[in-house]
């Protein structure tokens, strides 16, 4: 797939390209696949030539398990992530002040910093020398379904939350210099075209994030998301390559190494991009 100045290819690094590892929905709280998850962690840590690692959320509803996973990744490249609905779900409160909103704005940013990860809802990441910035949000959803944030069936509060998170994403985009190409990361499905035809769309996609993508697609080079345990891509959304590569639950992957996808954004015809890469 070739668009605007970059080609999207899979495989090994290309001179001047940005080599990206992508994972999501590892669900480390599923102890019945602990052995596979440990092998996946070792496989990720073996990819020492990555320029960027993206995790699109859903690690665990327990913050200590989120922390342990983030700390277990020792790659030297920038590591960025967004939380998923499971990461924000307060099943057993960990303190008197433990809420989904506090996890999103306080708890997860703090443990991410301590583990050496960049928490994308806190702000964008510029890849030095590559002319690329990474922006992201959980995204949330505007469908019917169950809301882990409010621990109840979805209602108007979820629409307001989805609008808030989409506005945060748009604010991030506005704060990145115009010359930078964007990689967008969400947990929830960012556009209805990413869902199979006839999908019930239960707590899955955000119409507000889809609107943000439509407005800023000309600046985007790649969209990555998680949530729905369905792998695909790249497929074009407003001309932007979009993909998902969840690990998922037992029997939803072929093996431990299947939890990581590596792709390369390779420089195409846009002059100066390859030369800018450090």
Gross morphology: globular
CATH top-level class: Alpha Beta
Number of domains: 1
The overall pLDDT average reads 89
- Using only C-alpha atoms, the radius of gyration works out to 18 Å
Biggest sheet, in brief? Answer: 7 strands, mixed
Overview of the molecule:
The protein is globular. The strands form 3 sheets. A 7-stranded mixed β-sheet has the order 1-2-15-3-4-5-6, covered by helices on one side. It has a single domain, classed as 4-Layer Sandwich (Purple Acid Phosphatase, chain A, domain 2), CATH 3.60.21.10. Helix content is 27%, strand content 23%. Mean pLDDT is 89; it is low at 1-15 and 268-278. With 278 residues, it is α/β, with parallel strands linked by helices. α2 (63-72) runs parallel beside α4.
Layout of strands and helices, then pairs:
Layout: E1 2-3, E2 6-10, E3 18-23, H1 34-45, E4 52-55, H2 63-72, E5 79-81, H3 85-88, H4 100-115, E6 118-119, E7 125-127, E8 132-137, E9 146-147, E10 152-153, H5 156-174, E11 181-186, H6 207-216, E12 220-225, E13 232-237, E14 240-244, E15 261-267, H7 273-276
Parallel strand pairs: 3-4, 4-5, 5-6, 8-11, 11-12, 12-14
Antiparallel strand pairs: 1-2, 2-15, 3-15, 7-8, 9-10, 13-14
